[in-house]
Design brief:
The protein is an alpha+beta fold. 37% of the residues lie in helices and 28% in strands.
Length: 171
């Protein structure tokens, strides 16, 4: 792209330098006009972000669905590696799973997953937690009554919204 811009600039400079050489002024104007159009579109293409096609987006999403991040999965549950410690959560211990969304001073909204077990509650942010997309996939696969069509409920006046994705049925 930079070569096209450089070549167009050279042609434009030579055209301005040799302006009276051409017999017909329409040819000179056409060359200048074409050079300006090529410069405009080339610089726009150079400075605009790359457009992602469907295949590259699909490959990126496949990588995110396969990336473990801070989680390691077993048939009984999963391990979380945080703050130089590792915790194991069994699928049976999970009482409920919520998706949350709160206003953030840095972003428009901050969202993530909240997992409540018999002993402890965990919150994972979608942007800050590596491997959270695979965690959501594993939770939906291993928990018996995963609800995808639950409505979002406003929890407080500060703008916290929660969606119940799973709740254990107590006997």
């Amino acid at each position: 792209m930079k070569k096209i811009i450089a070549f167009t600039c050279i042609v434009l400079v030579l055209t301005f330098y040799n302006y009276p050489v051409f017999d017909d002024k329409k040819i000179t104007f056409a060359i200048i006009f074409i050079c300006f159009i090529v410069l405009a579109f080339s610089t726009a293409k150079l400075y605009s972000p790359e457009e992602k096609d469907y295949d590259s987006f699909e490959k990126q999403m496949d990588k995110q669905h396969e990336y473990d991040g801070i989680f390691q999965y077993t048939t009984d549950g999963f391990y979380i590696q945080q703050n130089h410690s590792t915790e194991f959560i069994k699928w049976d211990q999970i009482v409920s799973v919520y998706s949350f969304s709160i206003p953030s001073p840095f972003n428009d909204r901050q969202s993530g997953l909240e997992i409540i077990t018999d002993e402890k509650a965990y919150e994972f942010d979608y942007e800050a937690t590596p491997g959270i997309i695979k965690l959501a996939d594993q939770l939906s696969t291993n928990l018996p009554s995963w609800e995808l069509n639950s409505s979002m409920v406003r929890m407080n006046n500060f703008g916290l919204f929660k969606t119940k994705l799973y709740e254990r049925n107590l006997p």
